[in-house]
Design a protein that fits this description.
- The complex is a heterodimer of chains A (309) and B (282).
- With 309 residues, chain A is mainly α.
- Chain A is globular, with a radius of gyration of 23 Å.
- Chain A has 14 helices and no strands.
- Chain B is mainly α.
- In chain B, helix 4 (58-91) runs parallel beside helix 9, helix 7 (112-123) packs across helix 9 (144-169) and helix 9 (144-169) crosses helix 11.
- Chain B is globular, with a radius of gyration of 23 Å.
- Classes of the chains: A mainly alpha (309), B mainly alpha (282).
- At the A-B interface, helix 1, helix 2, helix 4, helix 5 and helix 6 of A face helix 1, helix 2, helix 4, helix 5 and helix 6 of B.
Chain lengths: 309, 282
Amino acid sequence: MTGTVVTLTEPHPVRGASEGLPSAVAEAPAYTARAPRPVNTEPVAVRVALTAVALAFLGLFIGLPLVVVFVEAFKHGLGAYLDALVDPDALAAIRLTLLVALISVSANLVFGLVASWAIAKFDFAGKTFLITLIDLPFSVSPVVAGLVYVLLFGAQGLFGSWLQDWDIKIIFALPGIVLATIFVTFPFVARELIPLMQEQGTAEEEAAVSLGASGLSTFFRVTLPNVKWALLYGVLLCNARAMGEFGAVSVVSGHIRGLTNTMPLHIEILYNEYQFVASFAVASLLALLALVTLIAKTILEHRLAEEER
Amino acid sequence: MTASRLTLRHPSVIPGFGLTLGLTLTWLSLIVLLPLSALFIKTSEISFARFLTIVTSERTLHALQISFGLSLAAAAVNVVFGAIVVWVLVRYDFPLKRVVDALIDIPFALPTAVAGIALTALYAENGWIGSLLAPLGIQVSFTPLGILVALIFIGLPFVVRTVQPVLADLDAELEEAAASLGAVRSQTIWRVIVPSVWPALLTGFALAFARAVGEYGSVIFIAGNLPGISEIAPLLIVIRLEEFRYADATAIAVVMLLASFALLLVINRLQRWSELRGGKAS
């Protein structure tokens, strides 16, 4: 069933973990001997060398960038670090980022549930194409994502003069930032739910409906509990991207300090003004968010694998 | 599975199809399809000759060349090292393996602006890595090499997370059979393992490439952004937009968007192929 979801997206560790584990457990007794494949491994020297190469590469490209954020942030001590965070512009940026994330994650949460219900519980023509369209924002450059909204709602845009007549501001204001963020995070929740709900099939929902449950209570009491971990997982990823989005937001925000600067944009401004410690201090909050997201993701993957066992 | 297949033919029992599909299509059109079509509508306002002049101008061509060329190089580096990382993660044991495995996703989760300033700090002449490379005469930050580093960073998880489940699902019996039939280890690797993971490796390559082509945030800090040397295409779009040269920005964006559509098609094909292969192997 998962075979129908073929699109340009971030690969799918949850599915791998949840599918790999139970089958491995189920197949284990089939092997007559439990001995680790002696014929099928490399000499110790090769193993050590390969492990060293892999760890060195990961340390260089993933470990060091993560560490340097915190080292630079605390370069001048805790005082300077905290000063950077309680700066009014920084606080305004944090507030705006939280607000934008709240709106866009909620929107994508509702959309994700609605879309996966339509796609996973019913059969209709063009389903694969619809899934491809939902995944489309993943393959669009963030800058292009921002640009299309400028072309639509900017002063020179298709609806530009109409918006001006009604005195509605979308570009260089909150609505533009929210729209661009919803665009870049569009597929996150839906693509976590669709494969899982397709795999679970429709038997439970049909049973509930035939026993007299309404559509809504079937959804809330049968479908939702079945997908809660995948849903949470999608929301987490969606939130991390929403709070961290830079390119698309940068194009539509107008960089007005204290008004339309999100945290990533604030980081850029501070950095370009050579306020490195302040810049890395704000960056460290987002790095922390990334780490928390990954820890939660690891726990959720565990849950998912255990539940399917 | 067969039970649910059978019941899928009677979808009318479950309510809400019209409502949910209607909402899905409306929301999809408003957020994604309408804005993207605005790009093509705006492009149609430019004459074709003008479009060609913009797209074939020296600065645009250089920017596209840099974006696509360095993205290819970064994806190639990621395939080589990503394959080694996957092999080590799937086949060997070492301390803190689960932590290392979880950290692979950092480039997904870390905002691109944060990655950008972190990499710049590392590779600047007085940075931890930059200061080691400077005596060798290698400058990374503010050169195309810096762009390459950023693109390797953001592309790595695409390769690892695409190949990892395929290698993990690979049946050990195949390797045992090869070995028991007299294959040397290197023969087993090249004739059993590589053909099985090859489609996944290619898919990972294409995904990393597609992501790198459009990348903006992590690149602009480390790139130096010199026109013709280290200026990527997404940055040129932003520059044209800030100069109010909307036609220029739109034309470059259309080229980028068409390239992503083409890549999307290629990736769809690759993933289908990869799944077929995976199905055969297990």
